[in-house]
Write a structure and sequence with these properties.
The protein is of the alpha+beta class. The chain has 9 helices and 12 strands.
Length: about 325
């Protein structure tokens, strides 16, 4: 038998309602907003008309929350929210909360199952070149966003959860493996995810400085030197890749370390790395004996560890 009470519900106001029962009376709701810190790990439901400003109102009702979330600049954000909302674009629709889990198929382990991803959802604007998602809407991160234009946006929890490959040595790394459904949420999950996203670049004053610097950089973009992907990677990682090639290969012929890295990234996970390299690059590429039996996934791991070791040695 399940004796647990229904979830907390966060309503506009804000009102954090907790179902309260007695033996001889019908269920009644108790507003526990002033004691919200006691319920951080309780299941939470969001009222349909809840808005971002209500979340900061709850922080104001319960000062103990400001202490809990001090490192996420909760007090500074509350002061910013207290100035009131600013007009937002009519194309902005909501702030979407969505879980995205990582699954390492090599280690057979899940990670990041408690952190929510937050996105601003808006109608498409054909002038900005941002492609819409499958539902015809555009989503972008809150990181670096000004808080006050977002305060009146409703909060929406999306129940679809994408599960991504977390094994960074797999050819499927970062790819969506499958989608499941989960609507579980706690008050602590919600508060930490929102504050973490909004303070990605620091407190509100730092964010304003960052945005201004980005705008100045955009104005000067025409003076930037164009650099293709291989040039960029070689500039920052070329020495590490060359050291890794020296450790893993007897010979790479006339090929560059960047070329070897690009080819290694394409070896199927379970295919023998030596045989695949021979078919695609010829006999000029020779692995050292210790690495000749490794499959593509394990060969990438060995190469990655050699590259990281070279970086730490310097």
């Amino acid at each position: 038998m399940n004796f647990s009470l229904p979830a907390l519900t966060l309503h506009p106001g804000p009102r954090l309602l907790r179902p309260a029962r007695s033996d001889d009376s019908p269920p009644d709701d108790e507003d526990v907003g002033a004691r919200a810190v006691e319920f951080l790990f309780e299941p939470l439901e969001l009222a349909p008309d809840l808005r971002l400003r209500d979340l900061f109102g709850l922080l104001g009702q319960c000062p103990a929350l400001l202490t809990v979330y001090r490192r996420f600049y909760a007090e500074e954000l509350c002061a910013e929210a207290a100035l009131g909302p600013l007009p937002a674009s009519s194309k902005l629709l909501s702030i979407e909360l969505k879980q995205a889990w990582n699954y390492d198929s090599h280690a057979r382990a899940y990670s990041d199952v408690r952190r929510l991803q937050l996105s601003v959802v808006r109608e498409p604007d054909h002038d900005d070149g941002c492609p819409p998602d499958a539902d015809g809407l555009v989503r972008y991160s809150l990181a670096g966003s000004s808080l006050r234009p977002l305060l009146d946006l409703p909060l929406r929890l999306k129940s679809e959860v994408d599960i991504h490959e977390a094994d960074r040595y797999s050819t499927r790394s970062g790819q969506r493996l499958r989608t499941v459904r989960c609507s579980e949420l706690t008050l602590g999950d919600l508060l930490q995810s929102v504050l973490w996203e909004l303070t990605w670049f620091g407190p509100p004053a730092t964010i304003r400085e960052f945005v201004e610097e980005m705008a100045e950089g955009t104005d000067e973009a025409e003076s930037w030197r164009e650099m293709d992907a291989d040039e960029f990677m070689d500039q920052f990682f070329g020495d590490d890749e060359r050291r890794a090639c020296e450790l893993l290969f007897e010979s790479i012929g006339t090929l560059s370390a960047r070329k070897i890295t690009n080819v290694l990234d394409r070896i199927p996970d379970r295919c023998n790395g030596r045989q695949w390299l021979a078919r695609n690059l010829g006999k000029q590429v020779q692995l050292r004996p210790a690495f000749r039996r490794l499959n593509g996934r394990d060969l990438r791991q060995a190469f990655g560890e050699a590259r990281s070791a070279g970086r730490s040695a310097t």
